[in-house]
């Protein structure tokens, strides 16, 4: 096993806060346009598009600073702060919304998807909850997220780990789909 490097998320990434309320209003939402990811749209390493809001191309240009790129990571600033969305090809260009934080890996020493899997560990979730501020609802900010402990092996090993974990994710997704189909069929028979 190779030697691991220990650091913090802030040392390997740029972290910004999504637009504040004065930059984005409820009245800016449109029926079609550019998706804007809000905390409720962050699922388990995915963007959930079921109830996502949209802004016009004009507003998206105005909010260009908050545009995501492939391999970005989005966190909710409050509420369920343990989950994040890993931005893949299909999500490229969505906007980081109000109430979210965008993490962009800035070093070539790490595979961004490896960091996403690392951040998805129970230990990291517990760390976030323990260090969050707020008494009624946990809140994150750029300072807290910057201090999240990170560990990683050499790049080649990171890529092997990502490949194995993606393979497991695909099997889990397939099994869930089979279970949903079986449940649906049993309801139709009953």
Description:
The chain is of the alpha+beta class. It is 36% helix and 19% strand. The radius of gyration is 18 Å and the shape is globular. The strands form three sheets. It has a four-stranded antiparallel β-sheet. A four-stranded mixed β-sheet has the order 3-5-4-8. It has a two-stranded antiparallel ribbon with strand order 1-10.
Compile the SSE list and pairings.
Layout: E1 5-8, H1 9-12, E2 13-17, E3 29-30, E4 34-37, E5 53-55, H2 57-62, E6 73-76, E7 84-86, E8 95-96, E9 100-105, H3 112-119, H4 122-131, H5 142-146, E10 149-152, H6 155-189
Parallel strand pairs: 4-8
Antiparallel strand pairs: 1-10, 2-9, 3-5, 4-5, 6-7, 6-9
Features:
190 residues, 36% helix, 4-stranded mixed beta sheet, alpha+beta, single chain, 4-stranded antiparallel beta sheet
Q: How many E-type strands? A: 10
Widest sheet, order of strands:
2-9-6-7
Q: Please write the string of helix (H) and strand (E) elements.
A: EHEEEEHEEEEHHHEH
Structural class, please? alpha+beta
Largest beta sheet, briefly?
A: 4 strands, antiparallel
Q: What is the general shape? A: globular
Kindly provide the radius of gyration, computed on alpha-carbon positions and rounded to a whole number of angstroms.
18 Å
Number of helices: 6
- Percent strand equals 15-25%
What is the arithmetic mean of pLDDT?
Answer: 91
Give the N-terminus to C-terminus distance in angstroms: 53 Å
The residue ranges in which pLDDT falls below 50 over 5 or more consecutive positions are none
Helix fraction, binned, reads 25-40%
